[in-house]
Amino acid sequence: MTDSVEKRGGILGWFAGNHVAANILMVAVVVAGVYTVMTMRTEVFPPIDPRQVSASVSYPGANPEEVESGLVIRMEAALSGISGIARITSLAEEGLGMVTAELTSFADADEVLADVRDAIDRLPDFPPEGAEDPSVEKAAVRPQLMTIALFGDVGERPLRQTAERLRDDLLTVNQIAEVELGGVRSYEISIDVDEQALQRYNLTFETISQKISAASLDLAKRDVAHCQRGHTSAYTRRTDRCD
Predict the structure, then answer these.
(1) What is the pTM assigned to this prediction?
(2) 44, 46, 59, 106: which has the highest count of C-beta atoms within 10 A?
(3) Is 47 part of a structural domain of the chain?
(4) How far apart (Å, rounded) are the C-alpha atoms in residues 77 and 74?
């Protein structure tokens, strides 16, 4: 048996004849593996770079066709000549136009972001009248920690109010950056029309609808200084909530 082992060549033959060295090597490999596992960096939500740059413009009151012709097509043309962009996708919907540029593997995201901003800023007469200033930024993936479902034998409004209180409480935690409500309807303003007042002032439902549409404004919450309940002789405006 000894003669046959000695005749074996190569590293396997050497370890077969030197059992102590083989055991030492095995222990070294195990120790190195344990050390690597103990010192390996692990993250519950590792950062993900989608490598995208998006440009969006809000255009209140514009239909998708107007958004496409006045915003999207022009932004696509501005981005088409920028190096580092692999593909461009666009979205045109009511009141909003967005163009997303997917970057190539070796493109510098910050340089492409600056080039996209410069290209859009150089567009003449852009954005059109009535549209807001463009917003250009790198796409980011926000990690979601958990989803909390609320249910109960109550109406929709009390359930939403409870969810809003829970959201406000969660936002007081330092480690939580953002909490969003889902599966709820937006607040609306309902208007009760007094038919006798309509007849008295010779008004129609269509006239009131046109006046309301002309006076309606899309304001951010911070722009609303105050809100109040009120009524006119022709109709009463009732708000479910004022933020």
Answers:
(1) 0.49
(2) 59
(3) no
(4) 5
Scan for tokens 């996209």, then name that residue.
Answer: 116
Same domain, yes or no: 132 and 57: yes
154 with 125, same domain: the answer is no
Domain that holds residue 34: 2-39
Angle at 97 between CA 91 and CA 102, to 5 degrees: 55
When divided into structural domains, the chain yields a total of 4
Quote the tokens at residue 164: 């809003």
Pair type for strands 189-193 and 96-103: unpaired
How many CA atoms lie within 13 Å of 134's alpha carbon, on the beta-carbon side? 28
Instruction: Based on the fold, state whether residues 67 and 123 are members of the same structural domain.
Output: yes
DSSP letter (8 states) at residue 95: T
Question: From first to last of its 243 residues, what are the pLDDT tens digits of the chain?
Answer: 445 444 556 777 777 778 888 888 889 999 999 998 888 877 666 667 788 999 999 998 888 899 999 999 999 999 988 999 999 999 999 889 999 999 998 888 899 999 999 999 999 989 888 889 999 998 877 777 788 888 888 888 888 889 999 999 998 988 888 888 888 777 777 788 888 888 888 888 888 888 887 776 655 444 444 444 333 333 333 333 333
Residue 70, token pair as written in the block: 């006045």
Find the CATH number of the domain harbouring 88: 3.30.70.1430
